[in-house]
Amino acid sequence: MRMEKLRATGRFLRYSPKVSVFDRRLSSNSGKSIHSSASGYGNGFGKKCRDDVIRKWNGRACFGLYGYQGKNFRDCMERGVLDDTRRIQHRGFGSLAEKVQRNASFSTLNSDDISHFKGILGEKNVVEDEERLTIANTDWMHKYRGSSKLLLQPRSTEEVSQILKYCNSRNLAVVPQGGNTGLVGGSVPVFDEVVVNMSLMNNVISFDKVSGILVCEAGCILENLITFLDNQGFIMPLDLGAKGSCQIGGNVSTNAGGLRLVRYGSLHGTVLGLEVVLANGDVLDMLGTLRKDNTGYDLKHLFIGSEGSLGIVTKVSILTPPKLFSVNVAFLACQDYFSCQKLLVEAKRKLGEILSAFEFLDSHALDLVLNHLDGVRNPLPPTIHNFYVLIETTGSDETCDREKLEAFLVHAMEGGLISDGAIAQDINQASAFWYIREGVPEALMKAGAVYKYDLSLPVEKMYDLVDEMRTRLGDSANVVGYGHLGDGNLHLNVSTPQYDDKTLAQIEPFVYEWTSAHRGSISAEHGLGLMKANKIFYSKPTATVNLMASIKKMLDPKGILNPYKVLPHSIDSHS
Amino acid sequence: MPLRNISLLLTLILSSLSHHNRSSNFNLFNPLPFHSHTHHRSSMKIMVAIKRVVDYAVKIRVKSDKSGVETQNVKMSMNPFCEIALEEALRIKESGLASEVVAVTMGMKQSVDTLRTGLAMGADRAIHVETSGQLYPLSVAKLLRALVELEKPGLLILGKQAIDDDCNQTGQMVAGLLNWPQGTFASKVVLDKEKQVVTVDREVDGGLETLCLDLPAVITTDLRLNQPRYATLPNIMKAKSKVIKKFTPQDLNVEIKSDIEEVQVTEPPKRKAGVIVSSVDELIDKLKNEARVI
């Protein structure tokens, strides 16, 4: 019994990082299967969250919180904006100073449509319940909000195919939705698009223990796959903070990067095959389980990262690496950004094949985590350091790996690259270190309004942008930099008490222009979604974007799949 | 949790005499005559016993032949209660009430890794009694007694139990063998260097119990006593030059034997998945006829 107490506490400590906003969403977000497939710890939060969401929307507090086209809370109340579906429904901030118009060529739902869908899916999986629609219409940051009146929950590829075939014939716009953890408004409706929620397609189809190839349905929650594979002695090649509710189909559709990319590469490398349903309902079987297959164009890559605009991913075949039992995590302090870079170079050289993550956060990010998340403590003595780096190694020989890591860190410390550091002595400590890094987005949410930018930049230039942004914004905002240093991926976040157009005008388009000037990408791993659809030219030349538009036109001539997103609205409206 | 309802506050003053000791039955183990030491305040030594166990975040797997728990290719760490014990010792030392913290462990060669962790947390030096094969609490207690007689610490702190065997016996046994007072399941420890006593709060089922023990004494630590520190790089580096002394049970004149034979180890029965009933009638039927609770 005593031990139970301890283990229970341990479990709590270990899982508390994951009982985040994501998990709360998970339970409130969707259907029965998520409830049953999610581990218990998430469910307890479901009710509370749902209540919060409802209360917020009923009271229209959200408009006050996020601003409505720059007007204040009272204005919004007076106008009764909730009922106006013709107006843009997402909050008027982010990159959407310019308004999006509903594409007039799309039909609106009628009762025949509903009965038709009930014929395909059965009563239960055609959801018109307002409470559930409110959740499906809202992204997790509460930044975007659609006004869809219908959520469909297919259980098979065949059902997805029938849905799309019908929608295509009726000109009904569709938004595919997985765990709805996206950060750029890609997974929620903009207007009244039909939501196709994939959470009931959550079966593992096969797993080959020799090759490590996993075939599963798109609605499998990443964490459940991680647990499934753990029992087989394997791991998923990707891991990210939203693992408790994000789904593999959504991961693939957005080409999610995450924490292990430095070791296992992007999904373009690890995804071996896909089954995709096209806009007209045709099923494309590209569900290969071969590592090498050079027969013609490798079309699956079109669907990895196209954010559901070309087709709905229904099944995924993915190569998973074996689970190595020796994992070490170190949390380190560096005095300046240059030391972080040098440390990365050294780590690649000296830790070599065992390096599995190299993450960084600045002191502003650490302060946020320490101030806003419960149960977090600074692993290091409270001296102010400017940068913190988390290094994870994964290997097969504990003694050897440990010695290697310690020798590397001691050397780095003697050389002045590290000013302090701690090495996790057990799994609980390792989880605590990871929570600091993974908890930054959640801490930012709790701190107030946040403008998020996910940029790929040359590593040596990366932090210059944060410094410049700090100078630009002065005391009016808290500028925070963190991210996947090993991948040259900066998360630039600007935290302010509330959203306002003035701050936004200070940030954009400056941040995009700066990134473009340094030949970076304005979206490293989050995608373009609705937020950055019109910003694509900062990172892609016109000829490229035009070819993308042609491909979109060919695969989805009526433009029903995830409209207003990914491609610029100027091009999109031609289709 | 009943322990949080502090409805009862008992204050017992225990003398160092063994007949007041709750575990006086351990006198059966024929303890050596009590040696009284002079404890110079500045030079008090604290000995902490630590154990290497399967990391408590690891899912335990039973070996297929039921001979024990799988430890091959499994992450091993310091027993969490031992971490708490060591942390407490370090805090006492940092507050100027002790001069040295000695971490000790018994077990096979790899136990040295756990001592290294202890040294990296801040222990001054370490002792490893190298043994092979299974060790039971009584043997550990006898080895500890021998080490105590060698090192003469003013306090011996242990975790209240190890999470692998859950015995919760070693601290009590060694107190009995040494004829020292014991404060088990400590959730608060206050050392008074003037009076040479230590006050220990214990979490008991009825609430909190406060004991006052004469030094030298044995303390076993509970979960809420403190939050152990991390091993920082500078301390990991310093630990490399700290001394780990090795002994064998023979060196300490302790014979390792056990009257206990482990017959087999099996996993607890798996919890059955729940079912969703479709109606109240079905629920009532199941409660009546399947669960037989109504």
Task: Give the SSE map.
The complex is a heterodimer of chains A (575) and B (294).
Chain A: H1 2-15, H2 21-29, H3 32-37, H4 40-43, H5 46-59, H6 61-66, H7 73-79, H8 111-121, E1 126-127, H9 130-137, E2 151-152, H10 157-170, E3 174-177, E4 194-197, E5 204-208, E6 213-217, H11 222-232, H12 248-253, H13 261-264, H14 267-270, E7 271-277, E8 283-286, H15 300-303, E9 312-319, E10 326-334, H16 337-350, E11 355-362, H17 363-372, E12 387-395, H18 398-414, E13 420-423, H19 427-438, H20 440-447, E14 449-456, H21 459-473, E15 478-484, E16 489-496, H22 501-507, H23 510-517, H24 542-555, H25 569-572
Parallel strand pairs in A: 2-4, 3-4
Antiparallel strand pairs in A: 1-2, 5-6, 6-9, 7-8, 7-9, 10-12, 10-13, 11-12, 11-15, 14-16, 15-16
Helix pairs in contact in A: 1-19, 2-5, 17-20
Chain B: E1 9-13, E2 45-49, E3 52-54, E4 76-78, H1 80-94, E5 100-107, H2 111-121, E6 125-130, H3 137-151, E7 155-159, H4 170-178, E8 182-192, E9 197-204, E10 207-214, E11 217-221, E12 231-232, H5 233-239, E13 244-247, H6 280-290
Parallel strand pairs in B: 1-10, 2-5, 2-7, 5-6, 6-13, 7-11, 8-11
Antiparallel strand pairs in B: 3-4, 8-9, 9-10
